[in-house]
Amino acid sequence: QVQFVESGGGLVQAGGSLRLSCAASGFTFSSATMRWYRQSQGKEREWVALITSTGGSTNYADSVKGRFTISRDNAKNTVYLQMNSLKPEDTAMYYCNALLLPMNYWGQGTQVTVSS
Q: What is the mean pLDDT of the chain?
């Protein structure tokens, strides 16, 4: 079955960096566009970044553009999110995601907390 294991979250001061990882299994990872989402307390889940199957194309939400970088290693079935210049408003649970029609799959999330 499709599974994601996210890691790398934690507590960091504003201006710091974290690197999230999402190890995937149960599907052909190298064929899937992968996405990161986040959800802050009391808010709806929002899309953060995506990367196409080969890694040839990426896209970012305006709120993270220039600070976050999504990448992938298809040999390791892993997608990453490098987060730099973190702000308190980046505090959220971060989820990796794959839309494998007809199902939409989510990881369990990893918490990122940015202190001011």
A: 97
User: What does the block give as tokens for 67?
Assistant: 């600070």
Tell me how far apart the alpha carbons of residues 112 and 8 are, in angstroms, rounded to a whole number. Answer: 8
C-alpha–C-alpha distance, residues 94 and 4, integer Å: 12
- Give the closest residue to 37 by CA, choosing from 26, 52, 50: 50
- Contact predicate 23/4, CB 8 Å: yes
CB 108 within 8 A of CB 6: yes
Token pair in block for residue 20: 């999230």
Distance between CA 41 and CA 39 in Å, rounded?
7
- Residue range 54-102, pLDDT digits in tens: 999 999 999 999 999 999 999 999 999 999 999 999 999 999 999 999 9
- Residue by residue, DSSP assigns the chain as --EEEEE--EEEETT--EEEEEEEESS-GGG--EEEEEE-TTS--EEEEEE-TTS--EEE-TTTTTTEEEEEETTTTEEEEEE-S--GGG-EEEEEEEEETTEEEE---EEEEEE-
